Amino acid sequence: MSFIEWNHVTKRIRLEEGLHTFFHEANMSIEEGTISYVKSESEDAISLFFAMMAATTPPNSGDIIIDGTDITAVQDRFAWRKRTIGYLNDDGLLVPDRSIRQNLLLGFDPGTNEYDVRNAQIEQLAEELGLSAEELDESIEGLDSHYQLLANLTFILISKPPILLATHIKEQTIMTLLLDYAKKHRLTVLYADAPYAESEAQQYITLSDGLIHVE
């Protein structure tokens, strides 16, 4: 069994003009650690594809299996997403008046071993992503857009999700950091809306005529 599998997935959405089928009996398989670029002439199809990958909307029929789990049958999807999926886009994820470090230490009590371990993990990850100590301790709202997006990436990676999803990332340097990190740590990545980084993919997923073509 592949790390990610779509088996006979059908998804219909009711639009203003009526019921539209975006996927019909679609099949797909992706091996663990693969970096895939998703493309389609339909932006709606891409958005729906990522929503189903993140288990925020279920298919009408068929199975989506990730690491052996049929996510269409998962009861607590929020908990599953938190364990499994890191989703980077242009939305803010952090408390703006706190620093990156403070955001990542929420829920950890100072003076405990867990706090010290978490703080060491934060500093190691920050060094790997090129964040200085000053940037790590600056409030989110005091950072420019580049470092705010980098802060979001740090927040996602600290939880070590096996799958990274990324859409609408306009900064090439951020996408390069994400892909380099994923290659080093053998994470599975699906990304879209980044033509500047399309050539970095190991395979291409094309959504067309209700089907999924992987090459």
From TrEMBL:
Keywords: ATP-binding, Nucleotide-binding
Coiled-coil ranges per UniProt: none
A Pfam family that the UniProt record links to this protein: ABC_tran
Domain of life: Bacteria
Domain ABC transporter residue range list: 47-165
InterPro entries membership: ABC_transporter-like_ATP-bd, P-loop_NTPase
GO molecular function: ATP binding; ATP hydrolysis activity
Listed name of the protein: ATP-binding cassette domain-containing protein
Biological classification of the source: Bacteria, Bacillati, Bacillota, Bacilli, Bacillales
